[in-house]
Amino acid sequence: MRGGRSVHPRGLSTLFFTEMWERFSYYGMRAILILYMTAAAAGGNPGLGWEDGRAGAVYGLYTSFVYLLALPGGWVADRLWGQRRAVFVGGCIVALGHFALAGPLVGLPEVPTFFLGLALLAVGTGLLKPNVSTIVGDLYPRPPRGAAAERLTEWSAQRDRAFSIFYMGINIGALLGPFVCGTLGERVNWHWGFSAAGFGMVAGLIQYRLGYGYLAGAGDYAGGEPARVLHLRARRFYLIVAGVAAATALLAWLSRTGAVWFTLESFAAWTGYGILVLTIVFFAALIFGAKRAAALGALFAVLALALSPRLGAAAAGQWATVLTLAAFVAAGAGLLSGRGGPVTDDRKRLMVIFWLFLSAAVFWSGFEQAGSSMNLFARDLTDRTIGGFEVPTTWLQNVNPFFIIVLAPVFGWLWTWLASRRADPSTPVKFALGLMGLAGGFFVLAWGAANATASAAGASMAWLVVTYFLHTCGELALSPVGLSSMTKLAPAGRVGQMMGVWFIAAALGNLFAGLVAGRLEVLAPERLFWSVALFTGGFGVLALIASPGVKRLMGEAG
Q: What's the rounded Cα separation, in Å, for the pair 118 and 381?
């Protein structure tokens, strides 16, 4: 494959098809997930019969943990296995998860296999997703220190083009998955759809193994520690995994018996607070040291406990999270002002990564409404009839990946053309443009939702198509560039972890997307979509204002 004047390594195609089949399985399953949970428990193709609130919470928790587990998945690759092995093992677990979801086809109990399948999918994707992207970056080694600025610019542009090509593989899979798995699940049997997703992952694993030789060492473990050190590290890791699994099983049992007080929705909300606070503590440890990181964690706990009696648990968690974030930002501003010791390039870039993390989390919290609230809107309030044929709900999930496939080469050419004229927008500006494109899509959808009433035929599918077009433009401005930026900005030895951080942003976004979808029970769709538009658009304006300062912190990686 060619990008500009440069020839891309053959290994890029291996990773392209590996990711394509993994995304086929993920998006195929995701297209029917909330529809299956909210479908009536009786009939020719019964679902679980859950209400929107519960289904949205489960959807948000599952999709968030899919990405949340990318952080330990990156650690496993960096410190134990290497990215290549982590990708293969993760793919095997993903396939098992899909087949567990299809378990009722062979007489297995429905609800236990459903939750087992979701757990396996989250673990497997956490191993696979960050590490396949890291291997893409490894195919394009950074020029030696002191290389000419022109060489650095060429290297950066080639990597961006490679990730744009890689991103097309993601979206080819995302286009095929809802069509195949969605049609089987919605029109035949939900579990046949889950099964098809599993066979897609198996195809990706076979292709990946056959293409091992083309990776030329990219993704191999490069730690170099003695075998005894690796053995002790692995033992501690497996003990922690066993402990977490036992605690999760105990919590599930307590929830099933009614021994715990919290609802699924409140558990999902507090999971979101916990994810954000843990990310803050993680970056604080890297930037400021362990003591300040521990202080920020303690601050959150004290605030949450102090505010709960007056505000209630949910509001207390929100305010405690916001104030902890404000304290972290204030500490960063103090460091940059010259207080707190020397500010190395790595510390500056870690601050940039955190800012990009926040921006991406906001973006995904709106964008990932596609599989939840927008999917329910397409099913319940959209006129999907064309010439007497009712378009399956899941087919509308194909609009975004279709636009990605069409527009990704255009955006790749656009960035290269602008770079050749020294007018390529910086990474922070591209993030701001992505957020504004997302907000524009929700403004359109809010307008369309206002025209859809229960007594009318429903909104035209054109409203969703235009919304997906604007969301796609926003995605192409933000997501491929974000993937590339993580590998360029990450400190030495922490590339896998920083890729994990990038996917934690998606975890937060997916979690809150699911919670927002649950609000459809009590909030009119136009009000919900309008609120999302205002929030994401406001953050986009803030990102644009902050972009010059963020670019200065990036240095030569910007």
A: 28
